[in-house]
Specification:
With 181 residues, the chain is α/β, with parallel strands linked by helices. It has 2 domains: 3-138, Hexapeptide repeat proteins (UDP N-Acetylglucosamine Acyltransferase, domain 1, 3 Solenoid); 144-176, no CATH class. The protein has 3 helices and 15 strands. The protein has helices spanning 7-29, 36-44, 159-164; strands at residues 47-48, 53-54, 59-60, 68-70, 75-76, 81-83, 91-94, 99-100, 105-107, 113-116, 121-122, 127-128, 137-138, 148-149, 166-167. The strands form 4 sheets. It has a 5-stranded parallel sheet, with no helix packed on it. Strands 1-4-7-10 form a 4-stranded parallel sheet, with helices on one face. Helix 1 packs antiparallel against helix 2. The N and C termini lie far apart (69 Å).
Length: 181
């Protein structure tokens, strides 16, 4: 009988997935950005170098943790997400000295190797789908002013009342919006 049809093969895989998910959950909530979180992720199969710091609630791929490699002296801030598979397994490599800002999402596709270069800085709230060159700073577009609120959202009885209370913002002669920095 082939191994994939044996009950003990499925039970073993279920135990592996259960342990992996439990270790991932623990790593997201326990203290120890320089210590305990690293140990838990290493037990899951994530390749982690020396001097790495991982913030609170960082999610590393549950299904393919071995597809993530974090080199020495990397900092990954709070609530980042790293997914190493989309329609198949890829690989994420974060090179030495890189920093990932809070709330960033890093996703690679099938048979893709996504690399964040040595010393690169990814600013908070970024979505990374392609390689980031070494020693570069990258991030999402900055916040944009859409209008002036005359009826505060919490005070409006309906969304339509709030929407009707928004006034256009006049652009200053230098091309900036009032109140924008």
């Amino acid at each position: 009988m082939k191994a994939r049809y044996r009950l003990n093969t499925w039970v073993g895989m279920l135990n592996l997935f259960t342990v992996n998910r439990l270790l991932n959950l623990l790593a997201r909530v326990v203290p120890g950005g320089f210590s305990l979180r690293l140990i838990l992720h290493r037990l899951r199969g994530v390749k982690i170098g020396e001097g790495v710091w991982i913030g609170d609630d960082v999610y590393f791929d549950e299904d393919f943790p071995e597809a993530i490699e974090i080199q020495d002296n990397v900092a990954i801030a709070t609530r980042c997400t790293l997914i190493a598979h989309t329609k198949g397994v890829g690989k994420i490599i974060i090179e030495k000295g890189a920093a990932i800002g809070a709330g960033s999402v890093i996703v690679c596709g099938f048979e893709q190797t996504l690399t964040i270069g040595q010393g690169a800085v990814v600013s908070a709230g970024s979505t990374v789908l392609n390689d980031i060159p070494a020693f570069t700073l990258c991030g999402p577009p900055r916040i944009k002013v859409y209008g002036q609120v005359t009826v505060p959202f919490r005070d409006a009885a309906t969304f339509d009342q709030f929407r009707r209370g928004i006034r256009p913002v006049r652009v200053k002669s230098n091309g900036t919006h009032p109140g924008a920095s």
